[in-house]
Amino acid sequence: MTNILSSFTWMIFGALFGAALGSAFGAGLGYLTPDLVTDLFQLKGPDPIRYAAGVGAIVGLFLGFGGMILALGIQALGSQALGPQGPARTMKDA
User: Fold this and answer.
1) pLDDT tens sequence across 44-86
2) Could you give the C-alpha distances from 31 to 19, 40, 47, 50, 62, in angstroms and in order?
3) Closest to 29 measured CA to CA, from 60, 52, 6
4) pLDDT at 13 over 80
5) Domain residue ranges of the chain, discontinuous segments joined by +
6) Residue 66 exposed, middle or buried by CB count within 10 Å (0-12, 13-18, 19+)
7) What is the SS3 assignment for 33?
8) The pTM is what?
């Protein structure tokens, strides 16, 4: 049960970290090139910096969550294939 909670916590952590990075990237993009954001999303009224930060946070949330699920899946497959302690090494292998 602890392993499930740990994995869930890491997935949430990855999603929030991805959202923070995406929001920072979107805000920076909106600050540096507001015309690109306005033309890309066909904005009429909202502030391009805030809009790009919101879109970046949403996209980063999905990408961070997906990336963390992929990383945990690879870890789970590796631990299942190699066992919980990793490959057994003896003096003959070294």
Assistant:
1) 878 888 889 989 999 998 998 888 888 888 888 877 776 656 5
2) 18, 14, 10, 9, 23
3) 52
4) yes
5) 2-81
6) middle
7) coil
8) 0.71
